[in-house]
Amino acid sequence: MEMFAVVVASILFIGINRYLLKKKYLKKLNDTVEKEDRFCVIDIRDYISAHRAPYPGAENIPLSYLSRALKERFDCPKEILVITDDERGARMAAKLIRKKQNKPIYYKTSVS
């Protein structure tokens, strides 16, 4: 019985933490116009998608290369806006970026 209570408590704790961390660190940007000086914009879509539908002022770093780029060259004092195809990619990018910079990350899905 004690083991069951521990397992249930662990599952609840993990679920609540994941939900709260997602809401705290990853926020969807609904504004149609962003101020250029407010964000460092990272386009995590693949090269082909980013080339076909470029986002103004964004640096294209595909999600598969993001970890390496964060270690080598990325340093941004501003808030971060991630351009992505879906929320799953934004969550993965936010997890990588949070390891280096502990601040909220905004995301915007592209329309291609």
Automatic annotation (TrEMBL):
Protein name (record): Rhodanese-like domain-containing protein
Lineage, top ranks: Bacteria, Bacillati, Bacillota, Bacilli, Bacillales
Rhodanese domain sequence ranges: 35-100
PROSITE patterns with a match to the protein in the record: RHODANESE_3
